[in-house]
Amino acid sequence: MTKPAVAAVDWGTSSFRLWLLDAAGAVLAERRSGEGMLTAGAEGFGPILEKHLAAVGAPDSLPVVVCGMAGARQGWIEAPYVTLPAGLDGILAGAVPVPGQGSGQGSDRTRKIRILPGLAQRNANEPDVMRGEETQLAGVLPLFASGRHVICMPGTHSKWVEAEGGVIAGFRTWLTGELFSVLSKQSILRHSLGDNVAPALPDTPAFVAACTDALAQGGDIGPSLFRIRAATLLQDLRPADAAAKLSGLLIGAEIASARQLFDLPAGEVILVASGPLGTLYAAALRLAGCAVLQADADDAVRTGLFEAAKRLGWTGPVSESSLS
Amino acid sequence: MTKPAVAAVDWGTSSFRLWLLDAAGAVLAERRSGEGMLTAGAEGFGPILEKHLAAVGAPDSLPVVVCGMAGARQGWIEAPYVTLPAGLDGILAGAVPVPGQGSGQGSDRTRKIRILPGLAQRNANEPDVMRGEETQLAGVLPLFASGRHVICMPGTHSKWVEAEGGVIAGFRTWLTGELFSVLSKQSILRHSLGDNVAPALPDTPAFVAACTDALAQGGDIGPSLFRIRAATLLQDLRPADAAAKLSGLLIGAEIASARQLFDLPAGEVILVASGPLGTLYAAALRLAGCAVLQADADDAVRTGLFEAAKRLGWTGPVSESSLS
């Protein structure tokens, strides 16, 4: 097995992911768990990290680079937001060391750990923040290194980012994923969607129709939400179609709204997303007439963390021969 | 004490209200409780009604007229929706008797009870339903008996109604109250609003600013919701102001959205609402440039129930002398 050079950790609100990487960024081992910031705040960030490092056989000296909510004020060590405009260099310059960590065991070695900061947009009327997505952006920098680009990063809190010449110029957040969750579980619409809500498929007619309608409405979902309930009562709408409708409505509204805020360059959007959500957004963006350049979100965050480790000199000097 | 002529009951999803009325519609007694459809479905509608009737000393022979969710499929006795366009006569024609009710006690008398139906808009693309609001509309019929009018009925599920010559021509529903509830309690915004969310006051600057912004955005709340969270993190937004912002944003978006769907006649809106919510909507409608003609929602539903009782002949013949 190749020697590990660094551990890369994406530590979100409700999830923990760790990759053991070699000096070229190749994945040697991976860990995933639900021990996000909410769990780790109670159990301790250090012990959870060391447990996962031990599980993949990482040596005590292996450095760790972390992004996400571990750097929030309620997280492990606060990595204060870097203010826009910001490039990858600015994000790295804001990385915060975690003091005195290590596995203990009588050793006097302490592990080198850095937490990457989030980004803040401090305009008086458009305040916004991100934590974790900035590292995904660092991972897809080659896609927007020159010229102007708009990047869509869907999720619980979807981010739309405007970049110019590799620098993050501005961004906005939509609560799309969270709205789907609370509306499907907590609102009157739960009676329409039922208990077993599966992700919609992008070619489901109910998804396409709702998304197309929402794109035409310019982001206004107000009069459309209750219509799902009424269609259950009056038109026997099936639960799976109700879920597809709600999904299409919310994603279509997000794209319509973002399209009004960001002048989409030649209609091309860089989509950073994984799995079924990535497939749905790609379909919705195409319905909106956008060309889509898609990057996998998991690959992006891992690459961003590895880029940070490289800049920190943790992956060793790149020898001439290794470039051959 | 004047002799009671009828009991009027507004039986919603989570609330029960009963008024004992004399032959002129004057209130002799009132009962309010949280025994809405959800509770009554388990405990039984009949026993709950009889308990409240006994508490106000209503005789076994007193007839009862009911509106609201008691007439839903999951309610007491289903009063099927009346399809638009519909006037007060159509609503009354759809009233459904509840068979074999009464206090029992060895008496062979059964109480006369009628449940008023809701309204359904059965357009293929704009299905919508209401239960309870149709009775409020019957109670304010004199306000829209001639000409075209738009009526705003705010609440958990706000209804906007278009009426022409006293006939309900169409309506749409916004989830405004429910969105405020789930967002303030279940979403990331709960960290901004805190645990003690009080109704906003209409002259709170944060309410006015958010409402004005939302009115200008044409109903798109997408990029504005998370801004409340970001303002807490970056600008020390106070919880009370966060609640006022969310309230202003949702109400402003509803009005902006409704303004696009309904051609507001000379800008005048009939507002049927009570209490702090009525005050907020009146202020928001004025911010939108509308003239507001306000009616109290509690008075409206009671009047509507009494009108139904009159048409059923339950308030006795109106003698010449009683008109003097």
How would you explain this protein's 3D organization?
- 2 copies of one chain form a homodimer.
- In chain A, a hairpin with a 2-residue loop joins strand 11 (158-164) and strand 12 (167-174).
- Chain A has helices at residues 37-43, 45-55, 88-93, 133-139, 141-144, 176-186, 190-193, 205-217, 222-235, 239-261, 275-287, 297-311, and strands spanning 4-11, 16-22, 27-33, 64-68, 82-83, 96-97, 113-115, 119-121, 128-130, 148-153, 158-164, 167-174, 268-272, 291-295.
- Chain A has a 6-stranded mixed β-sheet with strand order 3-2-1-4-7-6, with helices on one face. A 5-stranded mixed β-sheet of chain A has the order 12-11-10-13-14.
- The first copy, chain A, is built from 12 helices and 14 strands.
- Chain A has 324 residues and is of the alpha/beta class.
- In chain A, helix 6 packs antiparallel against helix 10 (239-261), helix 8 runs parallel beside helix 10 (239-261) and helix 10 (239-261) crosses helix 11.
List the helices and strands and how they pair.
Two copies of one chain form a homodimer.
Chain A: E1 4-11, E2 16-22, E3 27-33, H1 37-43, H2 45-55, E4 64-68, E5 82-83, H3 88-93, E6 96-97, E7 113-115, E8 119-121, E9 128-130, H4 133-139, H5 141-144, E10 148-153, E11 158-164, E12 167-174, H6 176-186, H7 190-193, H8 205-217, H9 222-235, H10 239-261, E13 268-272, H11 275-287, E14 291-295, H12 297-311
Helix pairs in contact in A: 4-12, 6-10, 8-10, 9-10, 10-11
